[in-house]
Amino acid sequence: MTPVGVRFGRAILMVRGATGVAQSVNFYQNALGFEVTRHTDEWAELICPISSGEGSHVTARSTDASQSRATFKLNIKAVESEAQLSYGYTPFLNFETEDMDSAVAKCAQMGAHLDGPIQYPAHGKVAVLRAPDGHMIGLYEPNLL
């Protein structure tokens, strides 16, 4: 826990109505492998493992064996207001992958579009995509040491 008791809880993406929620759930579940934990017409919660930043995933202890891993929570909320739907390059979600080519191909099959070419800096591969819901997604494949 931080000194003031604050910790990251979840990221919330706002999309247009129940159709937007369903389309976003379909993309994050089938293109990126998120697990759906709740899904209604107005709200969805998805989770994926948290990376340790060293090529492996963080594990956390829990009294429930099925909840023995640390997870990132992504919520998708249905809204109708244009002001709530204004997006561009924020929020920017970034995910690590072990296979950039497969991840980009799967995302493209599910309706995402590359926002420029895949980059190859010294530390790994980086791709930026716009998801079907309009939000920006980064994919990062670290170089093996």
Straight-line distance between termini: 31 Å
Largest sheet: 4 strands, mixed
Large-scale geometry: globular
Residue-averaged pLDDT:
82
Structural class by sheet pairing and helices: alpha/beta
Order of helices and strands: EHEEEEHEEE
State the low-pLDDT regions, or none.
Answer: 56-67
Kindly report the spatial arrangement of strands forming the biggest sheet: 1-4-3-2
- Give the C-alpha Rg: 16 Å
Number of helices: 2
What's the helical proportion of residues?
A: 10-25%
Quaternary: single chain
Query: What proportion of the residues form beta strands (DSSP E)?
Result: 25-35%
Total strands: 8
Describe the protein in words.
With about 140 residues, the protein is an alpha/beta fold. About 15% of the residues lie in helices and about 35% in strands. The protein has helices at about 15-30, 100-110; strands at about 10-15, 35-40, 45-50, 70-80, 90-95, 115, 125-130, 135-140. The strands form 2 sheets. It has a 4-stranded mixed β-sheet with strand order 1-4-3-2, with helices on one face. Strands 5-8-7-6 form a 4-stranded mixed β-sheet, with helices on one face. A hairpin with a 3-residue loop joins β2 (about 35-40) and β3. It is globular.
What is the fold's blueprint, element by element?
Blueprint: E1 11-16, H1 17-30, E2 35-39, E3 43-49, E4 71-79, E5 92-96, H2 100-109, E6 113-114, E7 124-130, E8 136-142
Parallel strand pairs: 1-4, 5-8
Antiparallel strand pairs: 2-3, 3-4, 6-7, 7-8
Briefly say what this structure is.
The protein has 145 residues and is α/β, with parallel strands linked by helices. It has two helices and eight strands, in the order βαββββαβββ.
